[in-house]
Write the C-alpha cells for this entry.
Amino acid sequence: MKDIEFIEKEGLYVADFVSEGKCVIQVDNGTVDDLILYRHMPDMEPIAYDKLNFDSHKRVFDLDVPVGMMIRIISKTQVKAAKMVIAYQEGGNSGQTVTKATASVDANAGVPSVEVSLEDGSLNFDFKNLKGDVGKNGAKITSIELNITGTVISGKAHLDDESTADITGTYSPEE
C-alpha cells in the first residue's frame, strides 16, 4: 500500500504520480464533492479531453492506467489521507516492467538450479551448482536456454564438450 500526497495549488489540492498499473485508490477529503482524475503522458500537462470518466462521488475507486503514464487527482477540499493498492497481475511480476537483467554464477558443484527475482525492474538470475565434474578439456558453458512459466524455471546449459546440464528452479516476485 502506498500513500498519495496532495499539494495545494491555486486553491485546489492536487496529487500527481506515475501509474504502476491496475490499482485501487481511496481518497479521504471529508466531503462528497467531485474528484477530478486525469491521465497523461510524462512531461506533458493533462487537458480536458484526458479527464477519466468515473463516479466522481466515490472515494474508493478502481483505476486501470497503463504503467508509466501520469495520474493527476484534483480535490476542491483538503485531503486528509489518500492511499493506493496495486492490483498485481497474474504471472507474478508485481506490475513491474523489466528494464535490465543481471546474472550471477556460484562456484559450487551439484544439481544445477537458478533463482530468479524481479526487483526494481531488474530481472536477476542467480545460478547455482553449474560447476560439474571437469571434462577432458574443462568444459565451459557456451549457452543457456531458459523457460519461465509463472514462477517455474527450467532449461539447459550447453557446454563446449557438447554435453548439457539441466537447470531447474523457481522464483518469487518481490512482494
